[in-house]
Amino acid sequence: MSEKSRQHQGGNDQMTGPRERLSRGIQLEEPLIFERSRPGRQGFVLQGSDWDVEPVDSKAEFGELFRSEPADLPEVTEPEVVRHFTRLSQWNYSIDTGFYPLGSCTMKYNPKINEAMARLPGFANLHPYAPDQWCQGALELLWRLERILCAVSGLPACSLQPAAGAQGELTGLMCIHAYHDSRKDYGRRKIIVPDSAHGTNPASAAFNGFSVVEIPSGPDGTLSPKAVAEAMDETVAGLMITNPNTLGIFEKEIAEICKIVHDGGGKVYMDGANMNAILGKARPGDFGIDVMHFNVHKTFSTPHGGGGPGGGPICVSKDLEPYLPVPRIERDVDGDTITYRREFDGHQASVGKVKAFWGNFLVYVRAYTYLREYGKDLPRISELAVLNANYVRAKLGETYSVAYPGRCMHEVVFNDSSFKDLGVSTLDVAKRLIDYGFHPPTIYFPLNVEGALMIEPTETEALRAIDEFIEVMEMIHREAEETPELLKEAPRNAFRRRLDETQAARKPVLTYRQSKESR
Ligand SMILES: *Cc1c(COP(=O)(O)O)cnc(C)c1O
Question: Which domains are assigned to the chain?
Fold first, then answer.
């Protein structure tokens, strides 16, 4: 591994014991910014350029544009504003502040050089309507990123347009739909999805007008060729599969499964959310996949988790290439001159545009930077990610109950059988982790595991960070046996106690409102 990539495995250098973590606490009594408002308080006021110059008369300056009613904003000083926002950022858990073992989400550390590259003025200030000749560098970067993704996937063509994994699924299924339609094979209206699939898989299929046929995974957590063969007929458009699957297990029969679907006239879609386990080790195109998406915000280290911009590029086989969204990025070589352009024409069969402009461009600058940094060391990412997950499995497997025996890939799933009889739930364990300063792992997913706890340490955590997490998890298990009420009441140390998560998702309150009267 290069010196650079080694730096990214930083993690915490200070080892803090779980007790110390528990006592660290958070100051909750700080009033919010609106409550601090006092009439007439001001931040920085721009005076004239010289001491003896009159202040700028905004009213005269703006004429009729000057608002007659002042905006209903809190009146606070600049330090109060800075402290308010900085404090909010501290209440937020982030990968920059701690271990984030949220399974299936690949919450790896995002190298800061990605940000430096994305802020280069030539990239950051580029107008999306700039003509091709003004943005050759940006087009070249996108073209090169497409080539890298094709090399990693083992598939010949790529589109960077989809803005997230879920939109990649939608777009990939649109291509499968268009493929069958082009052959007048209109009877193919079903998509087969295993019971361990992420919720977006059946949702994308349904959104495309397909009906979903759910098939069970076997006792070892993988899909059997037999189950696929039984579901396969001439009404099936394709299979959606995740490999490694959401149980963190590699689907060993994948080549056979793809062959069954192909022989039956269908196509195979791969959800690539778990690519962090097989980078440079196995290529989906080689084991029979026709179309897949990457979650660049997971696998290629662009920040995610706050709903911010992501990227869900898809790679497809030769058969499906004609249906990719437009514009495609083309490279023309004329002697020594290489030019890049966005190509709309000549793609009559395309499913059209799925996203404005060319996808989330600056996300791709970050992903490209990350990929260039690793270069041929790419497989090292997966080696470490898989090693770390198996370390957690082996260590925690002594206390908690592993859902499926044997080695895992980049994430490990536990069930609730080691603590359920103590009257403690998976949710209680997850909430108690917050008290110890850790983000909880993914819980109750995959759905086919009872009380699932899904842990994905990623390759960027140092051994001591993982050890600290394991120590805390073991301590929580002892608490479950001795003082279960501590878990029931958790989190006690967080800014908020237990939320009504359903209401928080359905009726989010996104703005602070306070009536003028109550001020
Ligand atoms: C994250 C994830 C998705 C959805 O990807 P987004 O980029 O969040 O839309 C789909 N499948 C699996 C297995 C995932 O982990």
Answer: 3-91 (no CATH), 150-326 (3.40.640.10), 379-505 (3.90.1150.10)
